[in-house]
Amino acid sequence: MGPRRKPSELQPVGGSGEGQLVLRPSESKDYINELSHEVLCHIFRYLPMKDIMCMECLSRKLREAVTLYLRVVKVVDLCAGRWWEYMPSGFTDNSFLLLLKKMPDLEQLYGLHPRYLERRRVRGYEAFSIPGVLEALQACPSLLGVETSHLELVEAIWNYMPQVHILGKFRNRNGAFPIPAENKLTIPITAKIQTLHLVGVNVPEIPCVSMLRHLYLKWVRLTKPQPFKDFLCVSLRTFVMRNCAGPTNSLKYVPLVTGLASARNLEQLELVRVPFLGGLIQHVVEDSWRSGGFRNLHTIVFGACKNALEVDLGYLIITAARRLHELRIQPSLTKDGVFSALKMAELEFPQFETLHLGYVDEFLLQCKMSHSELVKYGLADVIENPGIITDIGIKVVNEVFSNIKYLLIYNCPHLHNPHHWITDQSRWSRLVDLTLVRCHAIKLESFSQFIESLPSLEFICLDQMFREPPKVYSVYSTKIIVGNTNPDTCNAPWICHNNYDNS
């Protein structure tokens, strides 16, 4: 922006002896430079940091306003609130240090997501490196927390700046399977972090981190022989462990389960391909339920857990009955006996809504690797068979979970007559969403009778259901919106996905 210019004035212009006043074309007025420094600093609060830094070179007054703003700012976001983006490119160690030195009162730095960081400085080469970032962060005496997604950077912060908190949700961005060798992280006991999402990372062990509330492990290789020896996270609310390569000896998962029982506020427990000792959860629940262990669970997921028993799942469900609202059960536990036992317990599940029978993790459904290849990469030896639940078991499901709204059944070949799922005690009165996948043996006529008797049903999803496409649907379509054929019992159209299995 150029310097201020003097506005033009009205000048008389004579023509043919006639005196007239004609306004010359006025030059554009610079309103920004007329604002005070205080107003400009207030405007900067609503602008991304990248735009603020660009204003420094527009005029002297704007440069002064930017300097004043940076001198008092306490919270900075380098990604403008977009956690999935990367910070502006072009930074070097010197330029980043110069920027942070202008912010002596900085307390929280968000969006520190560089696309690439050198591991060490190179003499004579201007680079953006981990030592350079640490030096810049240490130049802020009031710094309390940093948000980043870089594995090596967060480990360096833990080692050299242990007083700094890791803000927001830490999730590394270069996770993959098979796990890259360079993706590794050592978690210290003193780590000041509340949410840790690791995807495709080599981790020696999971220690006792007192502040940790949410722990998500996907494709994580635990390299120590006993990675849960010191596991104790009393503030934990979410624990998800999916397809991780860890110890094959199921006894080494005993500290993990006992440590989870000590987290009295645990709300979400997801175990996929975790080979814990069968019956272990039952004994831990018996010892800890009186003191609050597992009583606040609202989500329970068991998938491809090799040694899991019905009593392990049943004890968890019974303990968490008061708050449970979502349950996903692997095929080996999708049995009539599980729900018959729950019925005999005469429990109430006032908040329960979602049930997934025959649950298989998406990675295992979409993975193109063979079973032997997965085992070679350290995943537990698990081969899932179809669920063996029958019509009798499904009939008991709604007698146990009378408030169920969302039901998904995957690969249960022993289901034949859905009309038999309805009894005087099991009316499915609140069922809103029904999804059936690969249940080939279900009879179409019985299924139609079942659908017509559901008063609250809004959505139906059928996938790979019928060996021969029913006549009422188009053979050439894989997604059909069917009009409401029973307006007295249904409140909305049915949405059907018909991917027929013609084998």
TrEMBL record:
<dbReference type="GO" id="GO:0005634">
    <property type="term" value="C:nucleus"/>
</dbReference>
<dbReference type="GO" id="GO:0031146">
    <property type="term" value="P:SCF-dependent proteasomal ubiquitin-dependent protein catabolic process"/>
</dbReference>
<dbReference type="GO" id="GO:0005737">
    <property type="term" value="C:cytoplasm"/>
</dbReference>
<dbReference type="GO" id="GO:0070936">
    <property type="term" value="P:protein K48-linked ubiquitination"/>
</dbReference>
<feature type="domain" description="F-box">
    <location>
        <begin position="33"/>
        <end position="67"/>
    </location>
</feature>
<protein>
    <submittedName>
        <fullName>F-box protein 38</fullName>
    </submittedName>
</protein>
<dbReference type="Pfam" id="PF00646">
    <property type="entry name" value="F-box"/>
</dbReference>
<dbReference type="InterPro" id="IPR001810">
    <property type="entry name" value="F-box_dom"/>
</dbReference>
<dbReference type="InterPro" id="IPR036047">
    <property type="entry name" value="F-box-like_dom_sf"/>
</dbReference>
<dbReference type="InterPro" id="IPR042354">
    <property type="entry name" value="FBX38"/>
</dbReference>
<dbReference type="InterPro" id="IPR032675">
    <property type="entry name" value="LRR_dom_sf"/>
</dbReference>
